[in-house]
């Protein structure tokens, strides 16, 4: 159903972004993978997605904290595929520390990648979408776009900001056939979560197993991590024709976390 469309998924060399890219490719979209990692592993993924789903796949190493890189990536994708029909702003990092010990450079980095990167990408991609009178933008926020948790000041601020940005862009682009929505995952099993377990253990002063049980899944009423395929499925739905009237909103995929 997405055949003939081209999608950029930022931060898609790993975790949720890779899951989203694979689901969009499975529906027929051509894909720009983006993110960091060993180039040979990334090229293997490019070839695997292309072979498995028969779609065009490119890799772009744009650093989402660098506005010039982002503008270049959007222009290159438009050049290569003729358009960017779908933009998924997924690249994100986490940093966990008490606010009075939070390193200012980490604050800047989290805001740059998780919030400003999405702005620069939307800014660059919206022009082409407007000229074609169609487009889909999906911002991967978080349950932390709706509620807070201790030690996640920068992340929570960035994700709340991303939801605000989603609303404004949706309002501006609504008459041009472009929808802009946010997806708010709870805990999804990815390298980002795995890495956090150690940081959380240090901040709370408790062992790893206890972090998983009492800190992470404590918030998630269904007591399981979501899968990257589940997040990809929601993104694909938002990109479909059925979702044409859904804009400016956020969809929680959090096992009930934010219902409490
Ligand atoms: P991950 O660490 O597995 O993947 C992050 C991706 O972003 C990687 O491909 C990485 O290379 C890329 N990336 C990092 N910095 C970048 C930069 N400067 N420029 C370009 N790419 C960069 O993380 P994940 O868990 O898959 O998270 C993806 C998104 O989902 C993030 O925005 C995160 O905040 C959000 N999220 C994750 C969870 C979760 O439980 N994992 C929950 C809610 C929201």
Automatic annotation (TrEMBL):
InterPro entries according to UniProt: 3-OHbutyrate_DH (IPR011294), NAD(P)-bd_dom_sf (IPR036291), Sc_DH/Rdtase_CS (IPR020904), SDR (IPR050259), SDR_fam (IPR002347)
GO BP: any one term: monocarboxylic acid metabolic process
Gene3D superfamilies: NAD(P)-binding Rossmann-like Domain
Family of this protein: Belongs to the short-chain dehydrogenases/reductases (SDR) family.
Pfam families the UniProt entry points to: adh_short_C2
Keyword tRNA processing among record annotations: no
Sorted UniProt keywords: Oxidoreductase
EC number: 1.1.1.30
Domain of life, per lineage: Bacteria
GO molecular function, a single term: 3-hydroxybutyrate dehydrogenase activity
Protein name: 3-hydroxybutyrate dehydrogenase
Organism (species): Stappia albiluteola
């Amino acid at each position: 159903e997405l055949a003939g469309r081209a999608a950029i998924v930022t931060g898609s060399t790993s975790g949720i972004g890779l899951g989203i890219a694979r689901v969009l490719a499975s529906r027929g979209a051509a894909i720009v993978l983006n993110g960091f990692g060993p180039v040979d592993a990334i090229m293997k993924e490019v070839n695997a997605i292309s072979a498995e789903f028969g779609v065009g796949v490119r890799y772009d190493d744009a650093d989402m904290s660098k506005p010039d890189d982002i503008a270049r990536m959007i222009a290159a994708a438009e050049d290569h595929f003729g358009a960017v029909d779908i933009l998924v702003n997924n690249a994100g990092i986490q940093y966990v520390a008490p606010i009075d010990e939070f390193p200012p450079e980490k604050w800047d980095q989290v805001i740059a990648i998780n919030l400003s990167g999405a702005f620069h990408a939307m800014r660059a991609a919206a022009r082409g979408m407007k000229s074609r009178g169609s487009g889909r933008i999906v911002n991967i926020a978080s349950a932390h776009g709706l509620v807070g948790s201790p030690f996640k000041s920068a992340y929570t601020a960035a994700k709340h900001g991303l939801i605000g940005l989603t609303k404004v862009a949706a309002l501006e682009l609504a008459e041009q056939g472009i929808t802009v929505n946010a997806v708010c995952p709870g805990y999804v099993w990815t390298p980002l979560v795995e890495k956090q377990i150690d940081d959380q253990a240090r901040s709370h002063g408790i062992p790893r197993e206890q972090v998983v049980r009492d800190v992470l899944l404590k918030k998630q009423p269904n007591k399981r991590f979501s899968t990257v395929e589940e997040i990809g499925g929601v993104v694909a739905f938002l990109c479909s024709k059925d979702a044409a009237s859904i804009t400016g909103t956020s969809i929680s995929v959090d096992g009930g976390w934010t219902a409490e």
